[in-house]
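Re: [ENG-882] Designed sequences occasionally contain unexpected residues at chain ends

Forwarding the minimal case from QA. Structure tokens:
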């Protein structure tokens, strides 16, 4: 009887240990989810703007296919993102396109980390970690030769979902 109890205790401990990953593993899960949405959608098409109110995008587990417009130096444009909580967001892009972020006051938001790939997915051509406060931010893309870019936004501390 004691051996069965010990075996059950060890098994449950092993399951708990396997469920509790480190921060690096959580980051990898976010990349896997970002990749999944870049590849499979669901997708919403939007056209970026140069002036006026940019169209809204969200971190709602969907891909936004953004058509860029003619601007100074190439294709460019902006979209808006309303951050519901103050945290780091990861913006995944399908193309290597310059990204700048400003807050609702128009002040530049420093991008903490920016890479052109992910070890988890070759479809990720841009991975930008951006600390955002609660409020609406403007995401500006370009200038670039690409006529469009697809993006997926995930919270950096996002829990994997089913």
């Amino acid at each position: 009887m004691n051996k069965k109890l010990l075996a059950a205790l060890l098994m449950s401990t092993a399951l708990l240990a396997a469920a509790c990953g480190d921060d690096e593993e959580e980051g990898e899960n976010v990349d896997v989810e970002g990749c999944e949405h870049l590849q499979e959608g669901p997708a919403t098409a939007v056209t970026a703007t140069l002036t006026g109110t940019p169209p809204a995008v969200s971190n709602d587990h969907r891909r936004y296919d953004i058509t860029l417009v003619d601007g100074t130096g190439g294709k460019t444009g902006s979209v808006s993102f309303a951050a519901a909580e103050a945290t780091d967001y990861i913006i995944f892009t399908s193309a290597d396109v310059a990204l700048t972020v400003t807050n609702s006051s128009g002040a530049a938001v420093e991008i903490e980390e920016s890479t052109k790939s992910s070890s988890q997915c070759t479809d990720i051509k841009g991975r930008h970690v951006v600390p955002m406060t609660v409020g609406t931010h403007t995401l500006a893309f370009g200038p670039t030769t690409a006529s469009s870019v697809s993006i997926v936004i995930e919270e950096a501390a996002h829990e994997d979902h089913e």
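QA comment: On inspection the terminal residues look reasonable. The mean pLDDT is 85. Proposing we downgrade this to a documentation issue.
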